[in-house]
Amino acid sequence: MKIFIESIDRGIWNAVVNGSYIPMSVVNGESIVKAYDRLSEAENKRVQYDCVAKNIITPALHLDEFFRVSQCSSAKEMWDILEVTHEGTNDVERARKHAIIQEYKLFRMQLGETIADVQKRFTHIVNHLIGLGKQFDKEELNIKILKCLDRSW
Fold this sequence. Notes:
Layout: H1 2-8, H2 10-18, E1 24-27, E2 30-33, H3 41-57, H4 63-69, H5 75-87, H6 90-105, H7 115-131, H8 138-148
Antiparallel strand pairs: 1-2
């Protein structure tokens, strides 16, 4: 989703991550929200980013997910709810990372498994770990995959 939104306009992704832009003006030393008809073209475009982001996110959701975020007032609020729903809190992410690290450590070729299946399963685990911030050297991965093969290899 990030790649898709950024490909349209990075300002839209900025609205998802940082929240919608609220143009302010100073009147009598007090900051107030600028009236819509007083916005410059650039300010209007920045305000519009949040609307575009919500319009991109909403149709990509299943019905249950849509109901979960349908009352959100900003794309950031929608994204934050979806992020916690699908990725969990920091504690959940840490537990998931430890579980996948354990799966990586215990990785072995299974009885009757083809090399293609081993490679597919191994790549899946490594990609999850990379997604969670773990870094690997190619040499480390090569040694790991070679050690996990059964004696016939």
